[in-house]
Specification:
Blueprint: H1 3-15, H2 18-25, H3 29-43, E1 48-50, E2 55-57, H4 59-83, E3 91-97, H5 99-104, H6 106-116, E4 120-126, H7 129-137, E5 143-147, E6 155-163, E7 165-170, H8 185-188, E8 191-194, E9 217-221, H9 224-232, E10 238-241, H10 246-250, E11 254-256, E12 266-273, H11 280-296
Helix pairs in contact: 1-2, 1-3, 1-4, 2-3, 6-11
Length: 308
């Protein structure tokens, strides 16, 4: 039983098609059929049920597919362990991150990391916190980054930085010149609020202290970047982690309003699989994210790759 044959089987099983499995394997359909037949003869059982309309797995095929997934994860971990055994960090690092990191903090951190280690290959995916946790537990991710607020099983969480929550408005907003907000203003001037669409059970994107301040919600979006742009345009007020609006504050596109609500700072967390030693590449990315927050203050406009 050879690893290549198992990969051919895996591709056919995932694609539920010998022709598509052959394309995934970059071989001809006869070659992949021959490899699967050899596996079935070695194991003494059928792995697929073939009809003119579809291909499905037998019970034995389902068992083998699950073993293949675990085996391929081990092979990938072995390959990356070897790549990281030298003085230079290299190879893939798989990152799942919420938008606060993916759009605002990771770019600076990854520019520094890949500049110092050209062999490093980041694979980045924007995810909600629950998806990040699932990816870490299943071994599909090496490191995750989220804004704290939830409690998750199967992962270790490290607070790498904190960011103050600030209430802001754009230059054309009525409160810009005044530079402050008063109690009645919360019900008069509408807010844009970042929230997950039809997924209220997920960790909220917005940590505004609703219990102490009742506000008027004028718009919602599941994209923090869109919410920030709407505030810059003057249409709404917004409440964001300071690290997400460093550039806009630097260029006077946004103003922090005095009289905003007092609330705990946003916790910026790095997540790794519970009980597992993080890879060198994951530790490097975590450190560079921490540096990008501490040294730039969340303002990537004030940093350039020459400073790495």
């Amino acid at each position: 039983m050879e690893l290549t044959e198992l990969r051919y089987f895996h591709n056919v099983a995932v694609a539920r098609s010998f022709s598509r499995g052959a394309k995934l394997s970059h071989v001809s359909p006869p070659a992949i059929s021959k490899a699967v037949k050899k596996l079935e003869e070695e194991l003494g059982t059928a792995l697929f049920v073939r009809t003119t309309r579809k291909v499905s797995l037998t019970d034995a095929g389902e068992v083998l597919l699950e073993h293949c997934r675990g085996l391929f994860r081990q092979v990938e971990e072995m390959r990356r362990d070897i790549e990281e055994s030298g003085s230079s960090v290299r190879g893939e690092v798989r990152i799942g991150a919420s938008e606060v990191f993916a759009a605002f903090l990771l770019p600076t951190a990854l520019a520094r990391a890949t500049g110092a280690h050209p062999g490093l290959v980041p694979r980045c995916y924007q995810m909600v916190p629950e998806e990040v946790v699932h990816g870490l537990v299943e071994g599909d991710l090496d490191v995750g980054f989220t804004v704290g607020g939830g409690s998750y099983e199967g992962v270790d969480a490290l607070v790498i930085a904190e960011s103050e929550g600030v209430l802001v408005c754009g230059r054309s907003h009525p409160l810009f010149e005044r530079g402050s907000i008063e109690g009645e203003d919360f019900g008069v001037h509408p807010f844009v609020v970042p929230r997950h669409w039809q997924r209220e059970y997920l960790t909220t994107l917005d940590q505004f202290p609703e219990s102490s301040h009742s506000r008027q919600i004028g718009a919602t979006t599941d994209r923090m970047a869109l919410a920030i742009s709407l505030v810059v345009e003057g249409a709404f007020l917004g409440y964001f982690p300071q690290v997400t609006i460093g550039c806009q504050l630097r260029h006077d596109e946004l103003k922090v309003l005095d009289g905003g609500p007092e609330a705990p700072a946003f916790h910026l967390e790095a997540l790794t699989r519970k009980g597992a030693k993080p890879r060198a590449s994951a530790l490097l990315v975590i450190e560079e994210v921490r540096r990008s927050v501490v040294e730039t203050g969340g303002d990537p406009c004030g940093w350039s790759p020459d400073e790495a």
